[in-house]
Automatic annotation (TrEMBL), chain A:
Protein localization: Cell membrane
CC terms in the record's Gene Ontology section: plasma membrane
Name used for this protein in its record: ABC transporter permease
Main location: membrane
Domain ABC transmembrane type-1: residue ranges: 95-296
Protein species of origin: Mesorhizobium intechi
Example GO biological process: transmembrane transport
Automatic annotation (TrEMBL), chain B:
Name listed for the protein in its UniProt record: ABC transporter substrate-binding protein
Transmembrane intervals: none
Record localization: Periplasm
Primary residence: periplasm
Every Solute-binding protein family domain range: 81-453
GO molecular function terms listed in the Swiss-Prot or TrEMBL record: peptide transmembrane transporter activity
Annotated organism of origin: Mesorhizobium intechi
């Protein structure tokens, strides 16, 4: 177990190093000069050169990357080119909002997805099953931008049940969580359905039924706990999808998380922020996968860590 | 010996101007304005910084103007200069020395009185390369600038503190734009002790002399401005509080405005909703339209064949159907026929420009040796509506035989291509177009049409360099006497007329600004489309539902 963990942590660190190198290289190759951007359009060539020197951008790629890495080790992600604030501060101030949204979204997708999958499995082959599966298909394929705006329009503008975007109370959290949750719910509904169908075919379920147990008792007491475990183990892997989703959803709802920060930085070619958010996201994804792998054997004893 | 001005005529003209300025200082207060109240304004993007030496986008531009003051400013809603932190100024006869007398009793938000030392410190700071100010270049005419820019000196030798309320500027050349330079944000006065206390984070903890002070900044969520009760300009600002809510999509902001939750959507009316808003009389009544110091144009690289032939460039000017391009942006612009926008001093009202004439354009192409046209590339920024505008231009060019393939790229990439001599034959400027830093005709020349901008990484994307015009521009800018302003504007008109003869650009349109406000907002319309306090003059607007 310890050896496995050690190996996985080293693997994860290597992945992060790889991500940092690739992102750094891509941003380095970008045909846009950050110095020109900082210096502005009325700068003299001398000002441009001064700034280039101060930022160390006149150094060769390897030196620049090495400087970035050495600072990274001490937790310094540099300063934003446009906002001139420390990237760490910008990310830290926005991280709680993104985490809150993530929790909200996970609750939404589990609640919607698992119940949809459960009902579809129990009603397998019926019109209900088909309707739910079509709905899950729509949920998976609908662009989050459109879903978000639709929810906003119906529930915030028309019905005034929730505020139109923003951050602060639980009511602000509902619509963005739902928008994020609908995508995941589609996946979970499908996984839950097949997992449940599998379980329902098992001998012990047949035995329970033969004993004359009520249908509700069979589904909820015997089948559900077994069917749900493999599905829940997927949450860790989900984080990757979340990181993509928050960029869109946070922008639509004015949610002050790191997705919104990333989107703005991409539009303004603010390289230190893009690097920082990419690394933090990559870290979250790697961590999620690691946790999912570690937790899996506890949930399903058939899985062994090697 | 300095005189109040070069001649008695000019002196009386200036005296009149200053007299008017001080009278106007009271006049600028709207007698109907009510005191108090709070408003909410939304923006999509984070506010980059509130440091006047660094902030350089249309979102923080006016915010900084409300937190800080400069020696000069403009009358609200206009492009007319007036003294601000300065009480009065003198210009030497040779136009190379400017002496400003400061107001007494002006206090920073931290309670300390602002003096001439602060003015000097602020200018030393903005020109110091360590500050990395995008506006340092504006101060190039001040004596000693080159040494500071090169890191050889810490202080501008041309700025002298005569006494606590007098500061003197010596220039290396007469500079007619210097009063404008003293009004741009980069020259705004900052207190040394606060800058040193916060260092690189001063932009997050701004302390100035302005009408408002920063009360709260929650990163990514909101910025709150509070009325500066000690503001030297009595009666201003009208509002007690302004809350800027950050991170709101323009379309969401519009919905919230319609529900009465906010007062101004800072990013304006989203293009997709524009026609809907204008079709609804109730909403349309709350839209304010105004000109802005903007021109959208197509640059043609004059160093690349076939655009090195003036006839080809003139043909392109005649081929573009500007009215149709304007339709694409729902009529939110007026056709342009010269580089300067109509609201800019020096705009030549008599000049008719090139007519839309396909037959004549074809004839010109044939004369240039391209009867069947040619293949070329048109670069454009990849955000709506620019690709659609580029397509319209592409179709217009096809009508005279020019087959232009569109290169639709991110802003930074288009800018990089334009700054490369062999990079881009044609560029549609939309999304990166020139918006004046200050309302002076010279501001549309140097970086974008003069030889100084035709360098690698520069903004003169047509690589047009006419030494003769550079000399004429320098001559016009040496006319410092305000009494000769009209004469100077004429000199600039002639320069732009000559440029249009050479046709390095095809000017397409001048964008109009459309701002929306809630029914409770008061104040003249021109405060909501202020040409300098972009986008809104926060100091002078008020709400009607208080008291």
């Amino acid at each position: 177990m310890i050896a496995y963990l050690g190996r996985r942590v080293i693997q994860s660190l290597l992945i992060l190093l790889g991500v940092s190198l690739i992102t750094f290289a891509l941003l380095y190759l970008l045909p846009a000069d950050p110095v020109r951007q900082i210096a502005g359009r009325s700068a003299t060539p001398q000002t441009v050169e001064n700034i280039r020197q101060q930022l160390g951008l006149d150094q060769p790629f390897v030196v620049q990357y090495w400087h970035y890495l050495t600072r990274l080790v001490s937790g310094d992600l540099g300063r934003s080119y446009i906002q001139r604030s420390e990237v760490t501060e910008l990310i830290v101030s926005r991280l709680p909002a993104s985490l809150l949204l993530m929790v909200g979204a996970i609750l939404c997708e589990l609640l919607i997805g698992l119940s949809m999958g459960l009902i579809a499995a129990v009603k397998r082959g019926t019109a209900t099953d088909q309707t739910l599966m079509v709905a899950s298909f729509v949920g998976v394929s609908a662009p989050q931008f459109v879903v978000g705006l639709l929810l906003l329009y119906v529930f915030a503008v028309r019905l005034s049940w929730f505020p139109i975007g923003g951050y602060g109370t639980w009511r602000h959290l509902v619509l963005p969580s739902l928008t994020m949750g609908i995508l995941g719910a589609g996946w979970y509904a499908r996984m839950m359905r097949s997992s449940m169908i599998d379980v329902l075919r098992q001998d012990y379920v047949r035995t329970a039924r033969a004993k004359g147990l009520a249908r509700g008792a069979i589904v909820f007491r015997h089948a559900l706990p077994n069917a749900i475990l493999p599905v829940i183990a997927m949450i860790g892997i989900d984080i990757g999808i979340f990181m993509g989703g928050i960029v869109v959803v946070e922008s639509v709802f004015g949610w002050p998380g790191i997705g919104q920060l990333a989107w703005q930085a991409i539009q303004r070619v603010d390289i230190p922020i893009i690097m920082g958010v990419t690394l933090v996201s990559a870290f979250a994804i790697v961590l999620g996968n690691l946790l999912a792998d570690i937790i899996a054997p506890f949930i399903d004893p058939r899985i062994k860590l090697r | 010996m300095r005189r109040f001005l070069a001649t008695t005529v000019a002196a009386s003209a200036l005296a009149l101007m200053l007299g008017m300025a001080s009278a106007r200082a009271e006049d600028t207060i709207d007698p109907n304005a009510k005191q108090g109240g709070a408003i909410t304004i939304t923006y999509k993007d984070d506010v980059a910084t509130l440091d006047p030496a660094i902030g350089y986008d249309w979102q923080n531009w006016s915010m900084i103007k409300s937190l800080f003051d400069g020696l000069m400013d403009y009358e609200p809603g206009t492009t007319n200069l007036k003294p601000d932190l300065a009480e009065s100024y003198e210009i030497s006869p040779d136009g190379k020395t400017f002496t400003f007398k400061l107001r007494h009793g002006v206090k920073f938000h931290n309670g300390r009185e602002m003096t001439a030392d602060d003015v000097k410190y602020s200018l030393d700071r903005v020109t110091n390369p360590k500050t990395q100010s995008p506006g340092a270049g504006f101060f190039g005419s001040i004596k000693g600038y080159d040494d500071v820019a090169a890191g050889k000196a810490e202080s501008l030798s041309g700025v002298t503190v005569v006494d606590p309320y007098t500061v003197k500027f010596e220039l290396t050349r007469p500079d007619a734009t210097f009063l404008h330079v003293m009004a741009i944000n980069f020259s705004h006065v900052v207190p040394k002790e606060e800058v040193e206390k916060y260092g690189a984070d001063f932009g997050k903890h701004p302390v100035g002399t302005g009408a408002f002070k920063l009360a709260e900044w929650t990163l990514g969520q909101r910025i709150v401005f509070e009325r500066n009760a000690d503001y030297w300009h009595k009666g201003l600002p009208h509002l007690d509080k302004i809350t800027f809510e950050i991170g709101q999509e323009p379309i969401v902001a519009l919905l919230r405005l319609q529900k009465g939750e906010i007062d101004v959507p800072g990013d304006g009316i989203p293009p997709a909703k524009f026609q809907e808003v204008m079709a609804d009389p109730e909403q349309k009544a709350r839209v304010v339209e105004g000109g802005q110091l903007h021109t959208g144009y197509v640059t043609m690289n004059t160093t690349m064949a076939p655009f090195d032939n003036v006839k080809v460039r003139q043909a392109v000017n005649m081929a573009i159907n500007k009215a149709r391009v304007i339709q694409i942006i729902n009529g939110r612009a007026v056709p342009a026929n010269q580089p300067l926008p109509p609201s800019m001093p020096g705009y030549d009202k008599e000049y008719k420009g090139y007519p839309y004439d396909v037959a004549k354009a074809k004839a010109l192409l044939a004369e240039a040796g391209h009867p069947d046209g040619f293949d070329t590339q048109l670069f454009a920024m990849n955000t709506d509506p620019n690709p659609r505008i580029a397509q319209a231009i592409q179709q217009d060019l096809a009508a005279i035989g020019i087959k232009a393939s569109i290169q639709s790229l991110a802003q930074a990439n288009v800018i990089a291509a334009g700054g490369d001599k062999a990079g881009a034959p044609m560029i549609w400027s939309g999304g990166m177009a020139w918006i004046a830093d200050f309302p002076d005709p010279s501001n549309f020349y140097g970086p974008i049409l003069g030889c100084a901008g035709a360098v690698p990484g520069g903004w003169n994307w047509s690589w047009y360099c006419n030494k003769d015009l550079d000399a004429k521009a320098a001559e016009a800018d040496s006319v410092v006497d305000p009494a000769k302003a009209v004469e100077r504007d004429k000199m600039w008109s002639a320069i732009y007329d000559k440029i249009m003869e050479d046709a390095p650009w095809a000017p397409v349109f001048n964008e109009q600004r459309f701002t929306m406000k809630s029914a409770r907002m008061g104040g003249a319309d021109n405060l909501y489309v202020d040409p300098v306090h972009i986008p809104i003059n926060y100091d002078n607007v008020y709400v009607k539902d208080v008291q």
